[in-house]
Amino acid sequence: MTDVPALLPLGPDGLLVRFADRLSEPANRAALAFRADLESAVNPGIAETASSLASVLVRFRPDVITRKALEDELGSMLARQDWLEASLPAGRRLWRVPVAFGGAHGPDLEEASDAAGLAPEAAVEDICATRLRVLALGFSPGQPYLGLLPERWDIPRRGDVTREVPRGAVVVAVRQAIPFANAAPTGWRQVGRTAFRCIDPGLDPSIPLRPGDEMEFLPVEGRTLDRLLEDAPPHGGAERFEIP
Q1: pLDDT in tens, 73-112
Q2: What is the model's pTM?
Q3: First and final CA of the chain: distance in angstroms?
Q4: Looking at residue 4, what is its pLDDT?
């Protein structure tokens, strides 16, 4: 295990604040909380921040602040508290998203369920009973990595690659779930599909999810999802609530 938190150089105008060298719930919470504090400080020398599963990228303006000065500032922030014990930032939302599991919409449900040691029906109940956090956005614009599922879902990726899953495919692996923003190849197992759009140029904002938001899957029948895909209601029929 690398010493954490760590402050690492990243290119000519970047620093990486790393809270762990692998995903864990406390490390992700630390990254979200640290980034929120950094954003609230409104430092003119900082051009951009972005959080990943367990770290925060900080891009700075070298004409405004030196790397050494920013390192000192970030180091002081890191020393201020134990970020692994930090509270999640305010302003997060809960999304309840309709998903059709199994059948044509989830061709790998049985395989994934077997890998998790569950019957398919129990697997769907297990997934839908878990409130998942948007750990990070990545791979494709707006696409969320959701977690963490119970430990029995620490299943590996497949040995081969599915040539293409459709937009909205819900795939699982390594205790995470992803609703695909666009059609793409994947080595994760497709257990369901949603009409929720991770990016929608017709909406403002076009990317509805933010890191730290939470999501619950609501199981629906395949024909219900087919109607949602055809009618294309805002957010694919999902409901959004503010988290107190």
Answers
A1: 999 999 999 999 999 999 999 999 999 999 999 999 999 9
A2: 0.95
A3: 35
A4: 77
Token pair belonging to 150: 């119970």
Share of the chain above pLDDT 90, in %: 97
Radius of gyration of the chain measured on its C-alpha atoms: 19
Residue 91: exposure state from Cβ atoms within 10 A (0-12, 13-18, ≥19)? exposed
pLDDT tens by residue, 47-63: 999 999 999 999 999 99
Instruction: Give, in order, the Cα–Cα distances in Å from 17 to each of 20, 59, 71, 174, 214.
Output: 9, 11, 10, 23, 23
Beta bridge partners of 215: 95, 132
CA distance linking residue 209 with residue 50, whole number of Å: 14
pLDDT at 1 over 60: no
* Phi (first) and psi of residue 45, to 5 degrees: -80, -10
Give the torsion through C-alpha atoms of 62, 63, 68, 69, to 10 deg.
-120
Q: Could you tell me where the DSSP H helices lie in 17-160?
A: 25-41, 67-80, 109-116, 120-128
d(CA 41, CA 3): 26
**Which burial class, exposed, middle or buried, applies to 107 when counting CB atoms under 10 A from its CB (0-12, 13-18, 19+)?**
middle
DSSP conformation letters of 169-208? EEEEETTEEEE-SS-EEESSEEEEE----S--TTSSSSS-
d(CA 55, CA 22): 10
